[in-house]
Design goal:
Elements: E1 3-9, H1 13-26, E2 31-33, E3 42-47, H2 54-68, E4 76-80, H3 81-87, H4 89-94, E5 100-102, H5 110-116, E6 123-125, H6 130-138, E7 148-152, E8 154-155, H7 166-169, E9 174-175, H8 178-190, E10 195-199, E11 207-208, E12 211-212, H9 213-221, E13 228-232, H10 241-245, E14 256-258, H11 266-272, H12 278-291, E15 296-298, E16 300-303, H13 310-323, E17 329-332, H14 349-373, E18 378-386, E19 393-396, E20 402-406, E21 415-423, E22 427-432, H15 433-440
Parallel strand pairs: 1-2, 1-3, 3-4, 4-5, 5-6, 7-10, 10-13, 14-15, 16-17, 20-22
Antiparallel strand pairs: 8-9, 11-12, 18-19, 18-21, 19-20, 21-22
The chain binds S-adenosylmethionine, iron/sulfur cluster (SF4) and FE3-S4 cluster (F3S).
Amino acid sequence: MNQKIFIKTFGCQMNEYDSNRIYDTVKKIGYVKTDRYEDANCYLLNTCHIRDKAKEKVYHEIGRVKKIFRSKKKPLVIIAGCVAQAENEEMLKREPYIDLVIGPQAYHKINDSILNYTYRKKIEETNFDAVSKFEYLSRIKIQSSKSSSFLTIQEGCDKFCHFCVVPYTRGPEYSRPFKQIIDEAKYLADQGTKEIILLGQNVNAYKDGNLKLSNLISEIEKLDEIKRIRYTTSHPRDMSDDLIGIYKDTKKLMPLVHLPVQSGSDKVLKLMNRKHTIKEYLKIYEKFKKINSSIEFSSDFIIAYPGEEEQDFRETLDLIKEVKFINSFSFIFSPRPGTVAENLEIIDKNISKKRLNTVQEILFKNQLDKNKSLESNTIDVLVENKTKDEKRLFGRSEYMTSVLIDGDDDLIGKIVKIKILNSNQNTLFGYAVDQKKLKVA
Ligand code: SAM
Ligand code: SF4
Ligand code: F3S
């Protein structure tokens, strides 16, 4: 009999990739996915530790599950992801309802952990073992590919920015073998994937001997079925000339570069241990623009980092005005346990909020202006699926903007010309040009 697993995912795209691979794995021991967690025999929470009360959110979520299952047989409760890694056995002590705690580098052991589990023997798996993990996962068939699929090529981080938990939760930098990645890309292409998004905490630090991210992209570019390639997240320190250079010839690399800068002030960048200056960042920006002026940048910003003064904040605003980032993320600094910045003096809440509002006003306006400039234009969109209400189709522009489309289902999985009629800050609205022509004819 099939067991049912409910998987809830928080955090970044790598967690989404991981949740899909976890599902591919547990399928081997008879689990099928359910969207209704009250039906689950196994409840898996894939957690994120990057900001705020991440840990508390997990306990709160378990509280909800406990309530729902009060009068039913308890499901197997598994905590995976970055909170699991950071908290490990502490979680089992604090919340006896949790059965297994498994960190991101131990997912290859998940089936054994589930099968060996007894109520007397709680299990905690949080050793770093990226090599075995990816070797194991590469032998498991991917079932969860879509028109646009993630592919993790690099995991972990050695940069130790003072605010960030990732080096502690994902472990040291590890690059998967080149061939293993290309095999996975080919497999995804055979399964119908049209767009591959290469993932890594420092994706442009990818290295297998002499082979780098630029080599990987060139190799994937040769796969006929793959029409679009993206990569995220890059670090400015690793934005090398060979990577920038491939934008000269590429037909498939999308023209949006996500390159987090965090702050526009050299002083704050130094306090954060980011290891680059604004001048260096702008130099990278100019190199891209020189190759292709339609390339746009998006970024992550941390607002009100300890030590950020009004002048530093103004420098962040100046940078945003200069680069005109589209689709950026911005958050107030959140002290994280175990990081260098954990105990630094935080900036007054009201000042922090005011600065965040100011930054977001400009970032959102850039986004809106960009979308408005596309109204009445025809753009290429990769159609991914139907919307939840099944009334329209959902796709993405070359710049990753969501597009809601009037069109028929047979467009799913294709790159289609869409005439944009309308837009708001986050979404473009339009119709499929060719289908309209056919219907009129
Ligand atoms: N590796 C990427 C880089 O170096 O830019 C970022 C990875 S991190 C998963 C994603 C984003 O979370 C960061 O770019 C940063 O803006 C934000 N972030 C990380 N730690 C934070 C903290 N303590 N407080 C607020 N935002 C944080
Ligand atoms: Fe975190 Fe910095 Fe590493 Fe990015 S580069 S994952 S922000 S430590
Ligand atoms: Fe969160 Fe871990 Fe990703 S902390 S952002 S899930 S690497």
